[in-house]
Specification:
With 511 residues, this protein is an alpha+beta fold. 31% of the residues lie in helices and 12% in strands. It has a seven-stranded mixed sheet with strand order 1-2-10-13-6-5-3, covered by helices on one side. A four-stranded mixed sheet has the order 4-12-11-14. Strands 8-7-9 form a three-stranded antiparallel sheet. Strand 5 and strand 6 form a beta hairpin. Helix 8 packs across helix 10. The longest helix has 20 residues. The chain is globular and about 55 Å long.
């Protein structure tokens, strides 16, 4: 993340991929940004560990671009692998997701627009310019004929789904959404060839190092033309650009005391472990380009020279600590809420992640698959933690993350969000109040930000798309497949924006 977002000392910040504990002003703030988890439910609810099943997405037809297509030949010269059909992996999740969508349908949840609300919730969403229009208005945001037909098919499939008792929880957790519109053209998102990594930005985007590390306050940003979003931390607000493209979301949080207890408990746990293990002050040998604080990552990565993804190694002591953390059921439940939010607002991104993670786990060594996994059926390859102390993220992009993927960020701690810990999204010209316990999801590899987040590295997706091998190995194994793979890399970012959800799609899925 980047410069300070708060009007005083601190700001919520974090490391590139993972859970992030941070100090906001005088208070510790944990934020974690688990790279895009998608599920068919609007904010699927955080009780993931107590659910009888997981909630994968109900994906729309996959867009025809390079990132989704696997090469014909998947033979690896180094070891024998099972043939991976990415579309089949995505499709296999659909029926289960439709069953979970029953829960949303049972209580009449619409992500936004006009919806059947609980008695205590206002039934209609306002229609100001900065908000989503009524789904039934002449604006074109209602269901098209094709969307209606797909909705009918989904309802038919759901008849065979088991019932679920999570409706009560969802009813309390889901809030009517209001769009947050940003003046930005998504075609200008900056990614490397093939869209497997973002571009660092350099001086042209980030400025000099002094600008990167500068501590901005709210007044500084307002003078620079930023829009201040005084978010309550509960109301869902999709970030909409190009009229109807959902590029991120302020996903909110459940209005439940047990959720707050979990969030506070995870925050306190990270602070305690940070003190015990000396992880609240960055050592001289540590190089964290996101801020002057230590961070630890757990999961998988793939660097230059790797033939396949490898498990991150932090040394025995820290490895054991991080394993203990990801097994904490409070953290698992918070993770579930992030997953649900991703599910309703970015179903294709979730499908992309699930397919890639499934292929990865089938084709790396079994011991590594078991040792590096953070959460059961997690869509994220890596999770990062920082453990408190005075944390402020600098202005940056998470360059190694998938450019059009999302990171989930959950802010934890005890602080006044009206005075500190704001999230700054530089290209979107937004400065957002970020209350404790709330979750935000953004494409952190291509949007410069000062804050916190999580996501799997884009190199893993490149490896999966090449047939679970490196590009070099694919070239040796099947030159025609390699040529096809290379051609797909030429698709520009503007041709890949179909992976983001659109307003009418979310409305259609809610019916």
């Amino acid at each position: 993340m980047g410069a300070s977002l708060s009007s005083r000392k601190g700001c919520l910040q974090g490391s590139s991929v993972g859970f992030l504990g941070s100090l906001i002003q005088e208070s510790d703030l944990l934020t974690r940004s688990l790279q895009s988890y998608i599920v068919q439910l609007s904010m699927r609810y955080f009780l993931r560990s107590q659910a009888k099943f997981s909630l994968p997405p109900s994906p729309s037809p996959l867009p025809d671009h390079a990132a989704f297509e696997a090469p014909e030949t998947l033979a690896d010269p180094l070891f024998v692998i099972e043939r991976v059909d990415l579309e089949q992996l995505v499709d296999s999740a659909e029926q289960e997701a439709l069953c979970h969508a029953n829960v949303a349908e049972d209580i009449g949840i619409h992500a936004f627009g006009t919806f059947t609300a609980p008695p205590h919730v206002e039934k209609h969403i306002p229609t100001a310019e900065s908000q989503l229009k009524d789904a039934n208005s002449p604006s074109g945001l209602g269901q098209s004929h094709s969307n209606k037909k797909r909705a009918e098919k989904r309802r038919e499939k759901r008849k065979n789904c088991p019932s679920n008792d999570e409706s009560r929880v969802l009813q309390e957790a889901i809030q009517p959404a209001v769009a947050l519109r940003a003046e930005f053209d998504a075609k200008k998102l900056d990614a490397s060839r093939g869209a497997y990594a973002g571009n660092k930005g350099g001086r042209k985007v980030l400025g000099a190092q002094a600008d990167v590390e500068k501590e901005y306050d709210l007044q500084d940003l307002l003078k620079m033309g930023f829009q201040h979003e005084e978010w309550d931390g509960y109301t869902s607000k999709p970030i909409v650009v190009n009229d109807d493209l959902i590029i991120g979301v302020l996903a909110g949080q459940p209005r439940r005391p047990d959720y707050k207890r979990d969030a506070d408990g995870v925050h306190d746990l990270l602070m305690q472990k940070g003190r015990e293990h000396g992880l609240q002050v960055r050592g001289e040998e540590e190089d964290n380009k996101r801020g002057d604080f230590p961070a630890r990552r757990r999961g998988y990565t793939m660097g230059m020279g790797s033939s396949q993804p490898v498990v991150l190694d932090n040394g025995v002591d820290i490895n054991n600590l991080l394993t203990e953390l990801v097994q904490d059921q409070r953290l698992v439940r918070l993770n579930g809420y992030q997953n649900g939010a991703f599910g309703i607002w970015a179903e294709r991104i979730k499908a992309r992640y699930d397919a890639a993670m499934s292929a990865m786990h089938k084709n790396i060594h079994k011991a590594d698959s078991e040792r590096g996994r953070n959460f059961e059926k997690s869509s994220f390859a890596t999770v990062a933690f920082n453990f408190g102390g005075k944390v402020r993220c600098w202005k940056h992009r998470d360059q190694q993350n998938l450019p059009l993927g999302w990171c989930a960020i959950t802010a934890l701690g005890r602080f006044n969000p009206r005075k500190s810990a704001r999230l700054v999204l530089w290209e979107l010209k937004l400065v957002i109040d970020f209350p404790p316990g709330s979750t935000i999801l953004i494409p952190s590899a291509v949007i410069t930000h000062s804050n916190t987040r999580i996501t799997p590295a884009g190199a893993i997706f490149r490896w999966v798309d090449a047939g679970c091998m490196t590009d070099k190995a694919l070239k040796v194994a099947d030159r025609d497949a390699w040529k096809a793979h290379e051609r797909k890399k030429e698709v520009p970012v503007a041709g890949r924006l179909g992976i983001f959800s659109r307003v009418n799609e979310v409305l259609a899925r809610a019916n």
